[in-house]
C-alpha cells in the first residue's frame, strides 16, 4: 500500500501502522498505484485531482460528492463511488456504491470485489447515496451512544461496568440478528408485555422524544452533507 497526504504526516503514520510506503506526492502515488482510494475533504477534490492526474482506477469515499462531479474531475478514469462504514474494521461493513457506468466496464467488477472483502455491497442510485449514508454511515455512532447510555445507567444501578457492557453489547448483537427475521414492531410487541417493565421503558422513551430525536439526527446529517 502507498500513502500520500497534504503535509499532515498522516501518510507516514499509516504506512508504519498498516505496512506500506509513504510517497512524496500525489503524482507518484497515481503512477505507482493500481487503484487510488480517494479519502479527502470534498472541498479538496479539485486540488487533489490536479495532483493525481489520471490514475489507473479510483475509489472515492468522499461524502456528498456525486459521481458526475467525480467523473468531471477524473475524465476517462474508472471511478467507483462508495460509502463504507466503520464496520469495515471487522469486515462487517455495509458498503453502498453507485452503479457502474461505461468507464468502469472493465475495472468496475474488480474494484467491487476488493471492496466486498470488507462487508456487504449494496448498489444505490447515485442521487440517493447521501440519504443512505445518513441512515447507515452515521448510525454506528448513534447505536454506540445508545449502548453507552444503557451501560452507564446499569452501572449507576449497581452492575459491574464490565458486566453491564457485556450484557448490552451481546444483547445488541443478538437483536441485530433477530431483526433479520422479524419486523422491528414485532420485536417490540414480543418484549413489551402489557403493563410490564419494557412497556414502561418504551413509554419513557416516547415521552422524551427518542424517535423524533433520531429523525432529527438524520435530517441534521443530510443538511450538513448538502451544505
Amino acid at each position: 500500500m502507498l500513502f500520500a497526504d497534504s503535509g499532515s504526516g498522516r501518510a507516514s503514520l499509516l504506512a508504519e501502522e498498516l505496512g506500506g510506503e509513504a510517497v512524496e506526492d500525489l503524482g507518484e502515488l497515481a503512477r505507482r498505484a493500481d487503484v487510488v482510494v480517494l479519502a479527502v475533504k470534498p472541498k479538496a477534490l479539485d486540488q487533489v485531482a490536479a495532483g493525481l492526474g489520471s490514475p489507473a482506477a479510483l475509489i472515492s469515499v468522499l461524502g456528498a460528492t456525486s459521481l458526475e462531479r467525480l467523473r468531471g474531475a477524473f475524465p476517462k478514469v474508472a471511478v467507483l463511488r462508495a460509502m463504507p462504514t466503520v464496520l469495515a474494521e471487522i469486515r462487517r461493513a455495509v458498503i453502498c456504491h453507485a452503479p457502474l457506468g461505461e468507464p468502469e466496464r472493465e475495472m468496475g467488477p474488480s474494484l467491487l470485489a476488493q471492496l466486498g472483502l470488507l462487508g456487504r455491497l449494496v448498489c444505490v442510485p447515485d442521487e440517493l447515496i447521501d440519504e443512505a449514508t445518513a441512515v447507515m454511515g452515521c448510525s454506528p455512532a448513534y447505536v454506540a451512544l445508545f449502548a453507552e447510555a444503557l451501560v452507564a445507567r446499569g452501572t449507576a444501578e449497581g452492575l459491574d461496568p464490565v458486566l453491564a457492557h457485556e450484557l448490552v453489547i451481546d444483547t445488541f448483537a443478538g437483536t441485530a440478528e433477530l431483526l433479520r427475521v422479524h419486523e422491528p414492531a414485532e420485536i417490540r410487541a414480543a418484549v413489551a408485555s402489557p403493563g410490564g417493565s419494557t412497556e414502561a421503558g418504551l413509554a419513557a422513551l416516547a415521552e422524551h422524544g427518542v424517535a423524533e430525536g433520531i429523525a432529527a439526527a438524520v435530517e441534521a446529517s443530510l443538511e450538513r452533507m448538502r451544505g
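The longest helix spans residues 139-156. The chain has a mean pLDDT of 96.
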